[in-house]
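User: Before I run my own analysis I want an independent prediction to cross-check against. Here's the chain; please return only the structure tokens and, at the end, one sentence I can use as a sanity check.
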Amino acid sequence: MKLKVLVADDDVALRSLICDILNKQGYQAIPAIDGDDALEKYYSEPDLSLLILDVMMPGASGFEVLSQVRDLSEVPVLMLTALGDESNEITGFTGGANDYISKPFSYPILIARVEALLRKAKRERTSDFSMGALSINRSAHQVFVNNRVVVLNNKEYQLLDLLASNRGIVLERSKILDTIWGYDYDGDDKTINTHIKMLRSKLGDCAAYIITIKGTGYMLDER
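Assistant: Structure tokens:
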């Protein structure tokens, strides 16, 4: 399956060119015409692997898009900025951007930056997770509590792994549904309650790590 890359820039020619280059490299480019469109595409495409955001766009700026994205996930974000605009670069890194590239740029450099960010994200996704008595061996899809294997079904594992990947971040129910059950899922979000209940029952001493945020969703944290 092709990795999806969101490309948000109000410059039609530049956006189209970046999308064409990414598509030729084997990615699936998702174009966004401005910041508001970028947010809409982000929420409707839960399996995006990378975001490329121009800083200055109509509607929501690249920084505003970055802020909303960082409230929900750690998906890699590459920012586009004017040459030598150091203040914007500092603002972006402080807000959670992973990398910057200044316009104008060579397209081999763009692809090299994209591939480097995706490799890093893949390593982080496949690395083991540990928090207190809870640990996850991602390469083997195994969960341990107090060094004992916990048997989870596929959806329970996906749910726990999603929460672990966003440790300390509140995940809204809609984000959980879109990521695990898919954007076109038309069932009731009560299914999340059921899976959380079953997951907690299996985690034993670590059940309290799954924190309910009333009216919003769930978070994994050692509090």
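Sanity check: The radius of gyration is 19 Å.
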